[in-house]
Amino acid sequence: MKYRKIVNGKFIDRPNRFIAHVEIDGVVNTVHVKNTGRCKELLLPGTEVQLEESDNIKRKTLYDLVAVNKKGFGWINMDSQAPNKVVKEWLEGKDYDYIKQEYKYGDSRIDFYMKKGNVEYLMEVKGCTLEKNGVGYFPDAPTERGVKHLRELTKAQKLGYQCAIAFVIQMEGVTEVRPNIETHPEFGETLEIAQKAGVKVILYMCQVGRDTLEIIREKVQE
Questions:
Q1: In this predicted model, what pLDDT tens digit does every residue of 81-134 receive, in sequence order?
Q2: Where does 6-77 sit in CATH, by number?
Q3: Model's pTM, two decimal places?
Q4: Looking at the domain that runs over 82-221, which CATH code has it been given?
């Protein structure tokens, strides 16, 4: 996945979950934040960030905040649209007969439906941007939607689908993702039930470039 044009800036503050103030070349700009999560451990005053410049002159904000340089760790892509894009690229490089995004199943829309021969697959994708001591955690805020999707996958697995929840690790150097039970205990409990039912937990390790994000390794986490 490649961004159109990346510029560097310095984070100032975030008045709400949709916008932030960022200094670019000495000028304070209001930018769109491509992640509605809290990201409080990432978006600290003075932190170096990367922004994608839009080519849409009618937009209210010219830039999208897509990555942040976490002190002592490195660059973290925090674009919430990126995980599905890189997973789509990854899946298209495999030998599935059919791939469909936003697949309607039960009361939910699951990110990916795949078919290979007579085997049907369902995959829900989550982006991981929260890191503590070299370990990734999800979610960074309570996610009732995430719990709902896990329950749908658990039901589907029991009906014969091959189901998985995939965590796209939007940073380098992290090879494990744990449920953030301090923030949302129910997500951790539901994930455990799903795994016991046979739902796989897949980790996608990524390479984070200045203007790219690419999956370089897939791992099934026990």
A1: 999 999 999 999 999 999 999 999 988 899 999 999 999 999 999 999 999 999
A2: 2.40.50.580
A3: 0.95
A4: 3.40.1350.60
